[in-house]
């Protein structure tokens, strides 16, 4: 073994007391006696490692030795003060045995003086140590705290609590800001190489990083120097010439999976033991040592090279632009940041010149323009780019969001005009693309690009309808839906130009016929046929009358001029009498004093012409006004028909009502600019499904949570839909189950009023029933109709015991007896209401009739079998019988035998055939999935096979079937389509059913993996919070949610993260921080739902009305179109808003052209 030079520790050991004295013990809990300490070298029972001299040396001696060694390596320390040495010799360690002695007052005073002297000497010593830059206090502890107990100490118990611990140790839990361990960043300018001591010790001169003095001595020098977290060192870290050493893993050859272990290189092995070649390390560190200025130059050179080599790679240009944001973040001067912004804009302009059709680069450039230009200049730039890219759905969507959020320029009429331009441009692009597709390919197979164009057009139209609805023009929003559904779904089968279609539709709109959603509606095409039949019938009647009158009918005396004059005189006389009566009535009316609104207000003491006198100074009046306005908004959403040819001489009250009704009439000119034609089935179904969702109907998921349609729908929400509210309630129950005093906070106040309004449900039912003629045998629409009927009947009569939708379902089945999927939907609704026997009868009837159906209808049989099996397993009457019934049902599907109602358990032969049959069917499904053909029937077959294996073989085999299904889909396609998302949710449910056998860790890992594929799925986010609450710690769950919100921010993610903190009773500061992070995002700052949630948090939980007031003003500035948000200020913040402020808010609402239905003077008249 290599001989080391003698250390100070060995010198001190040589000068140790003789063997007769007691040596200190390493372990104070096991004291050694004097006799045992003398026999440590002779007895063999003592372990050898305890005989090492380093374990018998006092720890303070070692600490002093290390400190002196380090001081000698850096610079020679001055010697210790003689006074300190004498005191150390004169005051040896006291004995461990203490005796109680009586002390006089003089002795106590002497001890106090001695203690003060020691404090002064200690302070002078620390000050001198700071001035020398040495490490005199290294290894020392506070007074009255010994490092180790004496060897002869006889302890009374096995442990002690150090109540006077190290002030610089965070382990003692001190929160005082100065009680922080003295850590310092090393100085790379003075240190070369990666010497270990350089990471902890500093140069003695202290020119850049001066060591702080003792914490207790807060002198002026320490205050000026500051600690490592002070502004001085923060400025040093941000200095552009401050060099840092970056450790980068060396590039090595990839490790093959066949290797049994990862080989460790000699360099790494040497580094792990501290035996690194200094030259090699120095060379490596020098190559990686760079300042921020060096990094900026190197990155810029690298990006310049990449953009020259790959000019058409959008990722390179976007990364280059993002790097400019990082550079701007390190610059403190505003002028420097503006220069960096100009550089970023020039980079993106160059990228646009090379890639003129790239939408991502254009959007990035326009966002950079938004940071520099004024709103007028920015809108002009947008318009110029949109003229060149009029068919881009992404650009139009971002432009409309920009115009909507601009508070200074916002007016409803201006935004409405922009929507008209967008729909016109996109509709023209779709028509042009449609002509090209029809000429090039087979029209039976739609072009995917064309399908996406029409889906984008539908999304823009839905955004317009939401905008009109939220701005208060609810009748217009309803009319837009009616007009577009009629125009695109019920267009007459005539070869007409677009202009001819509009003229024909105008005739239908102004005719007074029932429109979609209204009672007795037939659809535009059917109405036109009926109109044509009526016209033909009238013409035939006229012709028949003329033909019948062809014979002689006797003499007829012709009218003479005298007779005509007599008739005219009689008519004139009658008219004169009527006019005289009318004039007499008018004269009588003129005699009566006219009492108008102005005179009535003067009678109340309000003068409208008196400036400030016309203001309402009572807050309660504004509260009543806002309640009345909210009530009328909820009640007045259906457009009113204009009655032609009616002139009424009613009184003043009726005239006022008529004027109000006229404001709710929607003319053809109001909807003409927003009509367009749809030719693809996907776009038509998307329009109808979003219409159902808009009015609060329930329908099976038609869109993947990753689709832009789903994201736009969630972003534009003002209220929480019922489906998401149910998931948040589940989280609330899980999180508050173990709390003694659960929080009373919930999201109930954010629930919408759609499902509570029976008129909405009737409107949806009428519309979907009419649309079933366009989409026959669509089980999703049929389910939506039955659920809307249930909600409508339940609201009208909640005492019924029969399934509310039974009569409607039977009438639909009578009209189409071959619709077996309707039977399945109806049976599931019966099972939901607990009528399991009736549901079984309906299922049995449908499955028995499947074989008699055409082949194209038999393909939907897997859905029926799967629904039936799930209904049986959901029945809690008898678990064993339910499992047997489910196995029997799935066995019939797998084996391919004719279905028979359940009588007894399935035989072993039938089960064997079912296993083999499912394998063959799955092979067929895999072949179609590889080609990209994924439909509802194939997903139902896979789920049925997995469920059958779970019930018969074991849950792990069922999981294997689902894993095999996922492996058949390319990774980039797994995040597309609602079918695969449904399949993954079913996979998670199966794991949760068997989490005791599979372990909760397996479930947790699968959920996290699914969250990477579907980060916006409410179902997966609910599972993350529920399972994470039991499986992992709160901090780990918060970290996961924060990471998801940082990488893929969305309204759904933030809602679940906020709900976890609120239901958990988290810190108000953290909840506010989450709100601020969410609303600081450019894409989420326009979420009315998040702003309303923030305001209610401040009012209901934090009880901070002033903070809620600030959040409210920020909210209306970010979302000026939301009338609901403005009214929240009147309803929720009336305690912190004055009457003058409420009056000003109403004036701003009128200035922004929001639709106000109630005049404040109506409330004043009611109060009088």
Automatic annotation (TrEMBL):
What are the Low complexity biased-composition ranges?
A: 9-28
**Gene3D superfamilies, from UniProt?**
Tetratricopeptide repeat domain (1.25.40.10)
**Family classification:** Belongs to the NRDE2 family.
- Which keywords appear in this protein's UniProt record, sorted alphabetically? Nucleus
Q: Where in the cell is it found?
A: Nucleus
Q: Which GO terms describe its biological process?
A: negative regulation of RNA catabolic process; regulatory ncRNA-mediated heterochromatin formation; RNA processing
Q: Which protein are we looking at? A: Suppressor of forked domain-containing protein
Signal among keywords: no
Which residue windows does the record flag with biased composition (Basic residues)?
114-125
Cite the Pfam families for this sequence.
Answer: NRDE-2 (PF08424)
Chief subcellular location equals: nucleus
The record's gene field reads LOC100812285
An example Gene Ontology CC term for this record:
nucleus
Region Disordered: what ranges?
1-28, 75-130
